């Protein structure tokens, strides 16, 4: 399992708060497309296919609290 980057972690943290890609993009000052790229990369690194599974895997692995 590759290490999730700090930016990917930040995106996952906002996802866990229920924010959309557009909202996360506004908060972080990046485009929603870039947010979705971070999400896709993190899903690949954690071996999951869905966004809810990504948040669950991040919680399980101590990436977010």
TrEMBL record:
Domain HTH luxR-type residues, every copy: 1-62
Keyword Thylakoid: no
Gene3D superfamilies: Winged helix-like DNA-binding domain superfamily/Winged helix DNA-binding domain (1.10.10.10)
Single annotated GO MF: DNA binding
GO BP, one annotated term: regulation of DNA-templated transcription
The entry's keywords: DNA-binding, Transcription, Transcription regulation
Protein origin, superkingdom: Bacteria
Coiled coil: none
Name of this protein: Helix-turn-helix transcriptional regulator
Species of the source: Rhizobium leguminosarum
């Amino acid at each position: 399992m590759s290490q999730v980057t700090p930016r990917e972690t930040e995106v996952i943290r906002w996802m866990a708060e229920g924010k959309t890609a557009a909202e996360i993009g506004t908060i972080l000052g990046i485009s929603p497309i870039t947010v979705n790229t971070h999400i896709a990369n993190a899903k690949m690194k954690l071996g999951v296919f869905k966004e809810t599974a990504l948040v669950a895997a991040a919680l399980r692995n101590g990436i977010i609290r």
